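INFO  loader      accepted 1 record
INFO  loader      residues=264
INFO  predictor   begin
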Amino acid sequence: MTHEIPAAERALAFGRAARAYAAYRPAYPAGVLDAVEELGGLRLAGARVADVGAGTGIASRALHRRGARVTGIEPGAAMAAQFRRELPQVALVRGDGNRLPLADGSLDLVAYAQSWHWTDPARAVPSALRVLRPGGALALLWNDPDPSVPWVAEQQARIVERIGDGCYISDRTLPGGLSWRTRELRWSRAVTVDFHLAKLATHSAFILLGAAGAAEFLAEERKHLLRRFPDGALEEPYTAFVAVALRSAADGPQEPGPGLVGRR
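INFO  predictor   done
INFO  writer      dumping tokens
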């Protein structure tokens, strides 16, 4: 089962599908950033923000368009290269979300968008609090298929049967020791069956399944979907989940970090 592969290895597997990830993964609806501002008591325009586990820059693009001064943090070489192609105007640092290569107290917001479940919270929380100014915000964002929609639940059951549990819907467990404010938003986008399957193929479980295994499953999945959506069009439903906690003076000082490394 691919979910039994260590999380660090699964996270880095995305590099094998970096271009497809950029092409097919969904963006964040405007309401997600509205919620970050409201729950965090901040304005993104002009804010100093780290997008940790930035991948190809999906969240970084949204934050940049809001006027934030964004630095992407990405450990994978291929994903970082795609980020630079997508967003050459946005700063990028190669680094690990468990040990942020940023200066102490330098940020207004640290965001882990679709990446917190790849971290070790015991290390990532202190690292994030260290780089935040007092009153700064830690935001965890997820943008996952909505399992309350029947066809999504049916698809998830087929995926679990083939690949195993925990391989498609993110683990949204929030770390203890912080006061979290949360919000969930439901939204959807209109896509074709083939576009949806191409998006599905960018999930780590399918990447690690291998080209032949993934192609076999996706071919069968295409038959299931076309029986339900014979015109080849569907609404891809999502739940976007936002969790924000503030760094208070009681949270520090934190362990000194490595400081700000060069932007590459």
